[in-house]
Each structure stands twice: as structure tokens, then as C-alpha cells.
Design goal:
The protein is built from 13 helices and 15 strands. By secondary structure, the protein is α/β, with parallel strands linked by helices. Strands 4-10-9-8-7-5-6 form a 7-stranded mixed beta sheet, with helices on both faces. It has a 4-stranded mixed beta sheet with strand order 1-2-3-13. The longest helix has about 30 residues.
Length: about 450
């Protein structure tokens, strides 16, 4: 028998008492969702602009049906042969460059990145890892160690971890006016490798989100990954592309975000999570035959109890089917371009908007206090996010200064949704500017 639903306050009180997990100070109580919309206990509809986990839309009927039908037949581990597992691996292989032909299935992006680290170290026989500043690769201990976003607030940087500057052409070391920012940022990685070698340390891997998200919705300059890969390969390391936030067609013009760097660039390892299962816990690592064989040569088998189970693979297949059937890559391109256009118009109107960047439905809006120094408008961004929630729009911030509005909505996000969000942002920013002007007048009058 289903119990009566608790009130929001009862749920919040219980969660504070017995759940040791992150949650905001004033959390919503969400009881159902569909497509790009979420609903609270009072039936109020919120537009979801940030949930890249519900990739093809919350509770997509095709995905729900696939899970239900397979659950009625069988769910077990991958010790037994099952067509869902091989069919899914085959479908994924069709989306990837030919050399990425061996797959491992897991339950989360963190597991995927942890396995990628193990694969890299076993293949290269090296230990050290190069990561981008402000990166976040997962919550396992091994991944906290390679996530500056986390380790700087905990035990600090390990000797075997090396941090390269984020290839940010808006507020980074080399900006939009640099003649060749891709080479300049890649040279920073080369210098890190040289310094590591002087200390007799050897590089196992370069880890990077294909589009740094926590770092501030960054779009690396084209050619950067190729040049980095050259330096890393020369040092005996491998290139790991973390597609956990940005894969599966989110960037629109390509299925994988690393493909924005050009057709000739192919990582050695690709990790997948979040959107792969539309909210179901499934993840994957794709790598080369050579790396997989080196891993198998240890004699220690890789086995994951729930990784690659029939239900997870049925869901994964359904997600791929929906992306193709509903042409969500084309949709992401069209709606993303429209959203970018509207946001750029707001940039001209509101000086607080310093930069608008993105690809497909991965977009960042960098809020600043002044045009010259590009100082992060952290407090203003937080205020705007709070006010948007009051207008039934769910958006959040990222970046080192917590000042970048991040758009990563479900891929069914529509043109009218984009217009609604931008019109609301326009209204709120206009109100903020008027209030600031009134405060200045009051301050001048009082003197």
C-alpha cells in the first residue's frame, strides 16, 4: 500500500536529519517530471535548463517502456551471455572512431573515470596524470585526487598530479586576441611534462572533459586537443576524453564533444555517463584494443556486478533510438543556435553579460562586474538564479567564480523555452540595473 505523501517541510526535516548528502538551502520538492519540465508537490511547473542527466527528456515513454519490458524478462549480471549487451556495444562502436573498439560497462561516471585511470596506468606503466585546472572527474578517492575543483578544498595536490591551465579564451592566460591560443595552451602542457621529467616522473594520462563544465562552460580552441595529444603521446601517456557531461549529441553538430576539435583527433580512452541512461545508472569506457589487452594481461579480470546488465543495456539502446528517431542532434543545433542568438542580443543590452559561449545545448553566460577586468559577478549571478527559480525556471552557475550561468537542458528543450528563459533574464537584469541606478542616486543624494 502506498503511503501518504509528506509535506515539503516534513521531507526537508527528515532529509536534514538522516541523509548526509548535498542539497541547497531552500530545495524544491519535485514529485514528477516529463520532457523538459519538473513539477513540485503543489503541481507547479518548472522549466529545467540544467538537467543533462535526463538527456532525451524526463521519463521519456520509450525509455520507460524499454526498462519495464526488460525488467519483466530478466535482469542479471554480465556473467551470462545476453544480446542486449553485445547489441549495445555494437551500436556505440558505430558512433565512435574505429580504433575505440573495446567497451567496459559500469554504473556511474565516477566508476568510468576510475577505470580509465587504471587502464592508462596499466598500459603505460606510468603513474602521473595531467588535468585541467578547476576540473571535476568524480567522487571516488582516486578521482578527487585528479579534480582540482575538489582537492584544493581537501588534502591538496598529490605529487603525481599536474595541473594545466584551462584553455579559456575569455578569461584565461591566452585570450581571444591571441594569435594562436590552441598552441599556447598546449605548450603549457608540454612545459608541465618537461618539468615532470626533470623530477624523474612519467606521465600516464592527460585527463580532460571535452568541454570543461565545472570550469565554466569552456569551449577549448580548435586544435588544442591534437597538440596536447602529441605532447602526451611523445611522453608515453594516453589521452582520456571525459564525455560524461557533454556526450551523446549535446553539442549538436557532432555526437561527441571531442569531435569539435576536428575529425583527425581521436582520444585513446573515452568515458561516458549521465546522459547515457537518461537517469538510469549506467556508464561506459571505450578504448583501443591495445590498451584493453594490456589491462587483461594482468590476469586480474574486470568484473562489475551491475555493469552491462540487460535492463541497463535495454535503456541505453532506447536512448540511442530516441536520439536518432527524434533527430535530437539537429534539434540541439537549431535550438542552441537560437538560444545563443537571443543571449548575444542580451549581451549587447546588458553590460553584466561579458561572454556567451557554447555549442548545441551546452552554453555558458559569463557574468562580470566590469568589462575591462572581467571580474566575476558572483553575487549578482546567485541573485539572478534565485529570482529565476521564483519565476519557475531552474538554472544554476558554474566556474571558479560561480558566475557563469550554465545551460545543459534535456535535449527536447524547445524554441519557446529558450525565448521564455531569455525574456525572463532580460526582465530580471533590467530590474537589477534600475535598482542599482536608484541606489547610486540615493548614495549621491545623501552626500
Amino acid at each position: 500500500m502506498r503511503r501518504a505523501q509528506r509535506s515539503r517541510q516534513e521531507t526537508l526535516s527528515l532529509r536534514r536529519r538522516i541523509i548526509g548528502l548535498f542539497y541547497p538551502n531552500d530545495p524544491l520538492k519535485i514529485v514528477k517530471a516529463r520532457g523538459q519540465y519538473m513539477y513540485d508537490e503543489n503541481g507547479r511547473q518548472y522549466l529545467d535548463c540544467i538537467n543533462n542527466v535526463a538527456h532525451v527528456g524526463h521519463c521519456h515513454p520509450d525509455v520507460v517502456k524499454a526498462a519495464h519490458e526488460q525488467n519483466q524478462l530478466l535482469n542479471t549480471n554480465s556473467r551470462y551471455l545476453h544480446d542486449n549487451l553485445t547489441d549495445y556495444a555494437e551500436r556505440l562502436s558505430e558512433k565512435l572512431p574505429e580504433k575505440l573498439c573495446t567497451f567496459y560497462f559500469l554504473n556511474s561516471g565516477s566508476e568510468a573515470n576510475d577505470l580509465a585511470l587504471r587502464l592508462a596506468r596499466q598500459f603505460t606503466k606510468h603513474e602521473d596524470v595531467i588535468v585541467l585546472d578547476h576540473a571535476y572527474h568524480g567522487h571516488l578517492t582516486s578521482l578527487i585526487d585528479i579534480s582540482p575543483y575538489k582537492f584544493r578544498n581537501l588534502e591538496g595536490q598529490k605529487e603525481w598530479v599536474h595541473v594545466a591551465p584551462v584553455p579559456d579564451t575569455y578569461r584565461g592566460l591566452y585570450r581571444e586576441d591571441h594569435e594562436d591560443p590552441a598552441t599556447a595552451y598546449a605548450n603549457e602542457v608540454e612545459n608541465i611534462i618537461k618539468q615532470a621529467h626533470k623530477k624523474d616522473r612519467k606521465i600516464a594520462a592527460f585527463f580532460a572533459e571535452s568541454l570543461p563544465s565545472v570550469g565554466g562552460q569552456i569551449i577549448p580552441p580548435e586544435g588544442y586537443f591534437q597538440k596536447v595529444a602529441e605532447h602526451v603521446h611523445k611522453a608515453g601517456g594516453v589521452f582520456v576524453a571525459d564525455e560524461i557531461q557533454v556526450g551523446f549529441g549535446r553539442v549538436g553538430k557532432h555526437f561527441w564533444a571531442f569531435q569539435l576539435q576536428g575529425e583527425e583527433f581521436v582520444p585513446d580512452i573515452v568515458t561516458m555517463g549521465k546522459p547515457i541512461g537518461n537517469g538510469h545508472p549506467i556508464a561506459c569506457v571505450a578504448t583501443t584494443k591495445e590498451i584493453a589487452e594490456a589491462f587483461a594481461a594482468t590476469g586480474v579480470e574486470y568484473f562489475n556486478t551491475f555493469g552491462g546488465n540487460p535492463v541497463s543495456c535495454a535503456i541505453g539502446l532506447a536512448v540511442l533510438d530516441v536520439i536518432e528517431k527524434e533527430q535530437l542532434q539537429v534539434h540541439a543545433t537549431e535550438v542552441g543556435n537560437f538560444l545563443m542568438k537571443l543571449l548575444v542580443e542580451q549581451k549587447i543590452k546588458h553590460p553584466i553579460i561579458g561572454d556567451v559561449r557554447g555549442s548545441g545545448l551546452f552554453i555558458g553566460v559569463d557574468l562580470i562586474k566590469d568589462q575591462a577586468k572581467r571580474t566575476p559577478a558572483t553575487e549578482e549571478a546567485e541573485y539572478l538564479i534565485t529570482r529565476l527559480k521564483e519565476e519557475y525556471i531552474l538554472l544554476s552557475t558554474d566556474g571558479p567564480g560561480r558566475n557563469v550561468l550554465k545551460f545543459k537542458p534535456p535535449m527536447c528543450f524547445a524554441m519557446e523555452d529558450a525565448k521564455f528563459v531569455v525574456d525572463t533574464i532580460d526582465k530580471l537584469l533590467t530590474d537589477m540595473e534600475k535598482e542599482h541606478l536608484n541606489q547610486e542616486k540615493t548614495s549621491i543624494g545623501s552626500t
